[in-house]
Amino acid sequence: MKTDMKKLCGTNYPVSICFIVVNEFCERFSYYGMKAVLTLYFLTYLHWDKDQSTAVYHAFSSLCYFTPILGALIADSWLGKFKTIVYLSVVYVIGHVVKSVGAIPTVGNSNVHISLSMLGLILIAFGTGGIKPCVAAFGGDQFDEEHASERRKFFSIFYMSINAGSLLSTVITPILRGDVQCFGGDCYALAFGVPAALMIVALVVFIGGSGLYKRTPPQGNILLEVCNCIGFAIKNRWKRSKYDSKRKHWLDWAEEKYSKRLIQEIKMVLKVLVLYIPLPMFWALFDQQGSRWTLQATRMNMAFGDSFVIKPDQMQMLNALLILLFIPVFDLLIYPLVGFCRINITPLRKMATGMIFASLAFIAAALVEVNVVRSVVGPVPVGRCLLQVFNVAEGDVMLKIPGSDVFPHPIRYLQDPHTYEMLPASGEQLTLEVTFNGKQSECNFTSDQQEAYSLIVYSDSTGVHCQHASDHITKNEDGNPLLRFLNTRPHAINLTVGGVSFQVSAGFSMSPNKTVDRGQYPDVRGCSAPDRCWSLDLGLLDFGASYTVVLTEESGLTVAHKMEDVKANDVHIAWQIPQYVLITVGEVMFSITGLEFSYSQAPANMKSVLQAGWLLTVAFGNVIVLIVAEGAGLEQWIEFLLFAGLLLAVFFIFSIMAYFYTYVDPDQLDKKPREEDEDDEDMMKKANDVQLNKTRKSTRL
Fold it and tell me: Is the pLDDT higher at 10 or at 387?
């Protein structure tokens, strides 16, 4: 039947790989789509701070790269690749569904949302990590040995499906999150639900091809055998070293139980694993695209002209897009050009160069961050507070604070711009002297330290008065503007701004800050009574800004005066492109070359061991970010420079290690006479007898 299907396809490709490629595309869409919006979900839905959000994001990423070892163990030792993929995909789907339910606001309270989210992420980590080492290998199993060239092309197609799924998901899921409104806000339930649906499709498609697959039964886990061999060598050396000190290598102490061929293969693998020790630092930088770089994007201007606006979590799609562009450029142009210049660029030199590019990417990110924070109101020091003044008294006022000269000049009516001034704050009552039309009065309010306030100065027939309101001076975490209204009219007002409703009481009252979408608002509808409605022109409400709109009555009309409390983001998101270009160049030279190097330096039956070691470097890289995010407490641009400096230091260490590394040809092991392997068991028995006699003689003595 398979032969007929090959003829129908007109190639030597088995039809079964179509199911595997579609499965991988859907699974990668599912994983990267969910992960693209994860950091903003922690910030805006669970209301965690940036450091906790970053730490949990990287803890999840780390778990996703620890669990492949478990998946490989299950597949090779018990269930086989097919059943492992099916069973763990079911776990994967359940995790996505639980995660989506946790994003529905009406399901329980915040503790329920956190519990469901964490449970869902754990199940997803076990699912995606468990099937990671199985799917590609299962695809390779579908080809017969005489079709090795088709197998190599399959892996290229397989890798393209991964990047295609990643690219589409990082474009689509942020749109589902931000452009679709549900439950009164961003629709995270939909943004997580669509990846869940794609994972269900992946599972159904994979099972749909079950009758076509070529399956190999479990043949024992080589990783487990390697660990047992190493453990036996260490244990044996500890027990018998005083009787025999002539063995050249510590692994030779396993010869009593394991074949010389296996020991020699493990020695080759360990040489490569030692080179892996510095590699986690590269991944510590690379995986921050979905955390720190996304957070940076929320404080930037994301508009490309008047019609196109990108979302902060969509910038991650640049990496997948650039990967698809750079791989052929490097393979067909850069590397041949370097070779033409007679520069010997070995795999390890490529990897070291990739580290430099990743470090440069974080230096670029630090430069961008320095400019980004210029529009951010700095944190208020201990013992101080911030105060800005809204003068709606229809005349100039003088404000004096005993012991301070922060307002030396008259404050004009509806003055704009206005700035925050720093005042002492002790939690006790603060007295301010206000002079208006030659008359003085006092305003009293209690100021708490490290807080920000607006002082509203207004007048009526009895004189000048003031009241205060608490301010929100940090930028909105999703990048959208914040808006509030100050009503100076004698009637309560209802307004609707882009679907967001505001109710403002009469008599110099301030509405709470609310998030609105960035955009032009030339026709905002407001009503002070059912039969008294009008429209206001608020102009552009820009990314990251906080606005106070003062509503006054002039000549019988309601007029809006827009004040900018926190400046809009003035650094365009296009300035992130250089850092994405640099980190992707680093990935091409480091990641892809690293995989090729690992496979070229490993014996055929040890490639899975090195694959597990490679995935662990990614896991430990995320652990590094987790530790720094929770423990360092540095300003963001300093943290970026710290990571860049650490990777440069690792570059020098890795370069020295690479200089002393000797490339090997694993195929040389296959040139050993077969008789040598067949006699290994007899040789081990003889060695055991000799060692036993020596031990008995030493015991007698």
Answer: 387
Q: Is the domain of 125 the same as that of 165?
A: yes
| Whether residue 458 is found in the same domain as residue 499 | no
d(Cα 324, Cα 672) in Å, to the nearest integer? Answer: 41
Q: Are residues 484 and 593 in the same domain?
A: no
Residue among 142, 173, 141, 187 at smallest CA distance from 44: 187
Question: Which range marks the domain in which residue 332 is found?
Answer: 259-376+576-664
User: Residues 406, 364: contact at Cβ < 8 Å?
Assistant: no
Total domains in the fold of the chain: 4
- Select from 282, 284, 287, 270 the least CA-distant residue to 350: 282
* Domain final residue pick, 547, 568, 589: 568
Euclidean distance between the first and the last CA atom of the chain, given in angstroms as a whole number: 72
421 and 327 co-located in one domain: no
| % of the chain surpassing 90 pLDDT | 38
Distance, CA of 598 to CA of 612 (rounded, Å): 11
Average pLDDT, the chain: 84
- Cα separation, 315 vs 174, in Å, equals 10
One domain for residues 527 and 446: no
For 393-404, write each residue's pLDDT tens digit. Answer: 888 888 887 777
> Lowest-pLDDT range, 370-374, 412-416, 680-684, 691-695?
691-695
pLDDT of 5? 43
pTM score, whole prediction: 0.83
* Domain final residue pick, 568, 591, 607: 568
Q: Own/partner pairs for 516-524, CB < 8 Å, 24+ apart? A: 516/480, 516/481, 516/482, 516/483, 516/541, 517/480, 518/302, 518/303, 518/309, 518/479, 518/480, 518/481, 518/542, 518/543, 521/497, 524/495, 524/496, 524/497, 524/560
- Strand-pair category, 452-460 with 384-391: parallel
